Amino acid sequence: MTVLEVLQSTTGYFQKHNIDNPRLNAEHLLAHVLGRKRIELYLDFERALRESELAPLRQLVKRRAAGEPLQHLLGTVEFCGRIFVCDKRALVPRPETEQLVELLISKFKCEIAHSRIVDVGTGSGVIALSVAAEFPEAEIVAVDISEDVLALARENAERLGLVDRVRFLRSNLLANVQPGLDVIVANLPYVSTEARQNLSREVLHDPEAALFAGPRGDELVRELIAHAPSYLRPGGILALEIGIGQSEALMSALAEKNYRDICTENDYSGVTRFLFARYG
Ligand SMILES: C[S@@+](CC[C@H](N)C(=O)[O-])C[C@H]1O[C@@H](n2cnc3c(N)ncnc32)[C@H](O)[C@@H]1O
């Protein structure tokens, strides 16, 4: 079979198994097996594939059709222009979270370049490491409750040459963090346990501790909102990614705790997804 024929048959197979973006998935997996860039496949459509190339592809295609996330099969994900290792230890980083990083940078670039920034619930480290790369003078702490997750984040720091720039700390929210922070940024678990049945097969491959916060979904974000004032320096920034439908109640929680300059931003699909506020 040629490259083009394999792409066509894999795309058809994925369509039958209700995989979103079937052609894109087929291209990513074939490029991965061949050790080529996806775009390079287009220059090689007529090349005949060897059995030694088809056999590993078949395994990956089967696993993808059964709902394993593409990023787990590739072992990496691109986030804010950098490649991160990605496996079942941590949440697969989402495009919305890239937007959180972009908003943080665009809104506060001038004032956070030399600041103390904490990423709470760092997962694979995408937020902390992207911010560290953007602000070479900033002091960054990446916090997670899971040691396994922190090991993955450290691995990513090493690969990106940022290991001296970020301190990794096991902590329940901010419990082990030194106060006097300029920025707290967090993409904490925000799915309600009741919403479990609505999640896709792919999402259910993410760790439970990365998805669910409790029956409401916003429990951990609320806890962070309640405790962050003791850790922020006057005028410090809280930047949050939140779940669908959570913004109004969380804005009230921020107002009740006397945060100021509270504002929301939508993600690219028009969902109110980000909250920003200052304290003191
Ligand atoms: C939604 S994932 C986000 C991962 C990463 N920041 C990202 O955006 O891809 C949430 C992370 O919060 C961590 N977490 C859950 N509860 C926590 C807690 N109480 N304190 C600190 N981290 C927590 C989980 O282990 C998980 O890595």
Could you walk me through the main structural features you see in this protein, from its secondary elements to its overall organization?
This protein is of the alpha/beta class and 280 residues long. Helix content is 39%, strand content 22%. The protein contains ten helices and eleven strands. The strands form three sheets. A seven-stranded mixed beta sheet has the order 5-4-3-6-9-11-10, sandwiched between helices. A two-stranded antiparallel sheet has the order 1-2. Strands 7-8 form a two-stranded parallel sheet. Helix 1 packs across helix 2, helix 2 packs antiparallel against helix 3 and helix 5 packs parallel to helix 6 (126-134). It is elongated. The N and C termini lie far apart (65 Å). Bound molecules: S-adenosylmethionine. S-adenosylmethionine (SAM) binds next to helix 6, strand 4 and helix 8. S-adenosylmethionine binds next to helix 6, strand 4 and helix 8.
